[in-house]
Amino acid sequence: MVTYDISLEGMFFSFFLLIIPVLISYYLDLKLISSTLESALRMVLQLLLVGVFLTFVFDLNNPVLNIVWVLVMVFVASHTVLKNAELKTQNLLPLLTIFMAVTNYTMLLYFNKFIIDLTDLFDARYFIPIAGMVLGNSLKANVIGMDNFCNEIQRNENRYLFRLSMGAEKIEALVPYLRKSIRVALKPTIANMATIGIVFLPGMMTGQILAGASPLVAIKYQIAIMLAIYVTTMVNVLLGVFVLIYRGFDEYGMFKKEMLRSS
Amino acid sequence: MGLLDIQNLSVSYDGKSILSDFNFSILKGEKILIKGNSGIGKSTLFRMIMGFGKYNSGEIYLEGVPVDADNIWDIRKKVAYVSQDTDIAEGKVSDLIDEVFSFKANRNNNGKSDLEKLLNRLSLSPDLVNKEYMKLSGGEKQRVVLVLALLSGKDIFLLDEVTSELDTGLKQKVVDIFFDNPQWTVLAISHDREWETKAMKVIDFSGRVN
């Protein structure tokens, strides 16, 4: 089976679709036109660069380079999480990057060793795309989790202060917020897992089938990757909120509002 | 030196002065009422004592120990602070009580055995604990929070408008509970005259110029 290449004309038609969000944004005054176009442009440039770069990485297939590239991915993901959760990066980025790197490398090695049983655990063809899928999902959940934690602690600050007044340690007083953020952050992933295959065909499965793999192989990969995504996402969200608990409060246990971008 | 000493305390937020050069002292066992219009720094004073906000200058001492980052966690375990904001929990009242008693600092506290007695004394039915906290009336919430503060086993109380939503009879009951124990040190903010009649000292913030 051959995957059909997309012609230049076909790519044009794919961009043509952007007219719809631009028109909707214009008529409803959503102020999304420039960010839509900017994001689309960024996507094109990034994918072009990554396309060139990955061809090079895959040809070389050097373990050190693969590991470093995943670290770059983790760094960018951590940065994006903080930016989208409206947090300043300086205090939180190093710790979040370290935490996310540890969970993601561990999961990748586990996946390649025990699930796929690869001889070369750092094989670029597996190491990098799987890292991308796991990270991409963790990223979304982490934005929700960290954003929710910061919002709740501000909106319901009195509940936190009440617990402190009742003799709670910082962590004891924050557990309810932690619980809530994790639950909220994991909801989309749980819903995804429950409806997969029926409501939507995930990208990886579609990709594998398009590339000619049998649907059964594609399904096995999909199941394994969903489970890996779920576990990594949960651990990453937990660690993300821990970074906030550890770095986001002053020595009196008060939330540092100066961490927020809006301050 | 008193039990709580405040020296030259100045607090300002966004350039607006809330408290300036405030001095205050309370002895063990004293019951003092703070009154005055809203928005003139009464609640701020309590928040400063609990370490819930930063002050610009001055000093606060509790039992001679400065209220600073090192000591604040111990101070919070000694002082029962009841804020006027009663939106403090979700879920059932019993979950709230269990949570408070699950904190490390309260695990050895057997005050919970007095729960029923206290509920009764404040005219709350014992099955109130099975209700959703957020569905209680304002007056019921105030009493639940007071019950928690009273069960804490602490003997220093900072009470911020804790009787505002109670009827006269209940206001008197609450005031009596706090005044009947000679060991307890009570600093209360209130507009209710039940406090004013019994208070040993009244500090009126209205006359203060900030």
From TrEMBL, chain A:
It is found in: Membrane. One of its GO terms (cellular component) is plasma membrane. The chain crosses the membrane at residues 6-28, 40-58, 64-82, 91-111, 126-145, 189-211, 223-246. Keywords: Membrane, Transmembrane, Transmembrane helix. It is a multi-pass membrane protein. Belongs to the UPF0014 family. This is Putative ABC transport system permease protein. It comes from Methanolobus vulcani.
Automatic annotation (TrEMBL), chain B:
Pfam families: ABC_tran. The keyword Transmembrane does not apply. InterPro entries: AAA+_ATPase, ABC_transporter-like_ATP-bd, ABC_transporter-like_CS, P-loop_NTPase. Keywords: ATP-binding, Nucleotide-binding. The keyword Hydrolase does not apply. This is Putative ABC transport system ATP-binding protein. Coiled coil: none annotated. Residues 4-203 form the ABC transporter domain.
